[in-house]
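Dear Dr. L.,

I hope this message finds you well. Following up on our conversation about the binding site, I have prepared a predicted three-dimensional model of the protein together with MGD. For your records, I am including the exact sequence and ligand specification that went into the calculation, followed by the structure tokens. Please feel free to forward this to your student if that is useful.
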Amino acid sequence: MLNRESTDLPAGPAAAAAEHIVRGACPHDCPDTCAMLITVRDGKVVKVGGDPDHPTTNGALCAKVTRYPERTYHADRLLQPMRRVGRKGEGRFEPVGWDEALDDISARLRAIAARDPQRILPYSYAGTMGFVQQEGMAMRFFHKLGASLLDRTICASAGQTALAHTLGGAVGMDIECFAQSRLIIIWGSNAITSNLHFWTIAQQAKRDGAKLIAIDPYCSDTALKCHQHIALLPGTDAALALGVMHVLIAEDRLDHDYIARHTLGFDALKERALAYPPDRVAKICGISADEVIGLARDYAGSRPAAIRLNYGTQRTHGGGNAVRAISCLPALTGAWRDPAGGVLLSASGHYPIASAALQRPDLLPQWPKVPRTINMVTIGDALAQADPPVEAVIVYNSNPVAVAPDSEKVIAGFSRENLFVVVLEHFQTDTADYADYLLPATTQLEHFDLHKTYGHRYLMINQPAVAPVGQARSNSEIFRQLAARMGFDDPCFRDSDIEIARSAIDWTDPRVQGMTLESIAQSGWSKLNVAQAPFAQGGFPTPSGKCEFFSERLAAQGLDPVPDFVPPHESVQSDPRRAASYPLAMISPPSRNFMNTTFVNLKSLRAPTHEPACELHPDEAAARGLVDGQRVRMFNDRGACLLKLNVTPRARPGVVVAWGVWWHKLAQGERNVNALTSQALTDMGRAPTFYDCLVEIEAASSEMTSTDESSAEAPSAGAPSAGAPSAGAPSAGARPTRAGPTGASRSRHPPPA
Ligand SMILES: Nc1nc2c(c(=O)[nH]1)N[C@H]1C(S)=C(S)[C@@H](COP(=O)(O)OP(=O)(O)OC[C@H]3O[C@@H](n4cnc5c(=O)[nH]c(N)nc54)[C@H](O)[C@@H]3O)O[C@H]1N2
Ligand SMILES: Nc1nc2c(c(=O)[nH]1)N[C@H]1C(S)=C(S)[C@@H](COP(=O)(O)OP(=O)(O)OC[C@H]3O[C@@H](n4cnc5c(=O)[nH]c(N)nc54)[C@H](O)[C@@H]3O)O[C@H]1N2
Ligand SMILES: [Mo]
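The resulting structure of the complex is given below.
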């Protein structure tokens, strides 16, 4: 499967030597997208390191990705195709040949498609972010089939929609320029966890005298190291941004020239901001009026002033409006005039992506009419209620049973005996337990790819370092072979991985002028030609060419054209009745050692935390008679999970911080935090509201508190070993109770009672 043609591209140095280094790119859903140097000895990867020449990677990888060899050669790695033998969710499989598996899968899909191809649904996200292995061949396949479209909204679509309606796209500052900023506001981002290489840059700025301010309900590792931390309540960022505007306007600290030339709708924004005086904002946000005023004065008084905004701000009901309000700020003060001023949420919109050539929507049977769209966030409801029903789900690059909100409903959906499920994976995840066919996929060390990024401006190449492990095949190869079996004979289904990568970029665009796939492969990466201060003279990619405080396009959708504070669905202020039963606002931000649910099954990365944990303020703990270190049950009317309690003032009163995102089956009680989160959506972008979730916490009953890490180990997954029907040793049944509201005993993900 190693794509023959890939050797045509210049590989890394000394490609033929017994020990050699191959250039890779980190595939994960992280803004850093690091350049990797992969050391191969005798056909095996022995080391993965960071490229010292790549300006943002700067020679360093995070603890997770340094462990790529351990992950790749892990004893639980899926090495052969498998077919279900037990009940859905039991996770019991038998080995099957590739041909038999692909023949049967294509026959099943053909039969369903004959009734209505919309009954088939792809489910995928960002297990890998490469053009080839993420959606390149997969999307062509599902388009040709006429399957339901998947709305890929689980992470960023509220913020992206907001940016599109304000700046004109996912565009902004060059991350490297933050080194020269005099003020950096780190807004809804725990950079030390989720954007480590930006943190290196921010520390450089700090050493050079910049002030760092964190805006975060939790005193994260990052907030701890900033000069100031503003601990607002979750989901109140728009109010804070409007309060800052109020002060800027009241004290006339505006760049009137920039506003006049390069913005649209100042009067409407001014009127809105005047409704948010600091006292009102302080009440909404749970902070002091002085903090609002101080933030505004710091912002207006520093030049260059930069905002590193992250997706943590947009996982509540008003997330879209929050991102819109925050991204209006640099146009009010003219911060965009400097390369080290402005805002960065995502840089992905700077890449000239040829998505029509890559994904071929024109292959849809009734193009330009498109099939129905199913939102990946509400997969729980969709599997129960969609009409016509979903009869098949093909999962790749994602672990929906663990990452989608409202787990009990997701589990119930995947438990349907009349749902045909195919999962392409590296490991036997929570989702894999529900597969009818479980297909072993290659890792980034075993396949070719080309990457855009969302945190910096380099196109990145990933060369395969070694041959696929076991019988693993790349996503692109699996969909290529399925396409052949379905009789899809368009030439694009025979494209090699190199050809798919080439089709992904509009090479005529000035931003990639002078670049070819081959030239990028030479160094492993190549920087886009985009101005360091892209909006110093305006030129926003909006319809008006201006920063749109007022958005005609939002108005046309019947939405508020001017940013406002949209309260959380669930908070003490917005829903006091619900808060009477569930008074704590729960947020579940990324863990440092995991990448969403990826790496949770690596014992070495799980070791520091040992088990899922949460943090609660001493006053909240005392009010409940809870003590540090004890096991607690966190619950609401949707579900429950068991956590170890850390009592610490780093969590503000009213908020519980429950780190994401464990595998259900590796957690005590076999439920992670998504058992409690809801399927409610954001104000724009149809996105999830993971951090908009009221809960209560109590001591776990004694039968829930047996703490034996070994009992929470993964069942040895889908086994490489000689043909034995493997996996899913019924370890689950040996455990005491599940965390769920019913407390009923259960097998591995039981349908809710
Ligand atoms: N190690 C690691 N890195 C990751 C990930 C991971 O799981 N682990 N996930 C990756 C993914 S998928 C993404 S999308 C990115 C970005 O992921 P983000 O969701 O931006 O994650 P963080 O940077 O950790 O920042 C979230 C911060 O926002 C805070 N927060 C929560 N609610 C609010 C709120 O309402 N307002 C404000 N101001 N702050 C809030 C949290 O306490 C946390 O400190 O990170 C990526 N990087
Ligand atoms: N409670 C709560 N839930 C959350 C979040 C949160 O902050 N709190 N964060 C949300 C966010 S921001 C996101 S982005 C989503 C992430 O959700 P997902 O995108 O589902 O992310 P992962 O859990 O990392 O699962 C990715 C899976 O893809 C697999 N994979 C990796 N590479 C390949 C490949 O080449 N081929 C195949 N076939 N498989 C591959 C990995 O083994 C892994 O199991 O989760 C969301 N869920
Ligand atoms: Mo994400």
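In brief: The mean pLDDT is 92.

With kind regards,
A. P.
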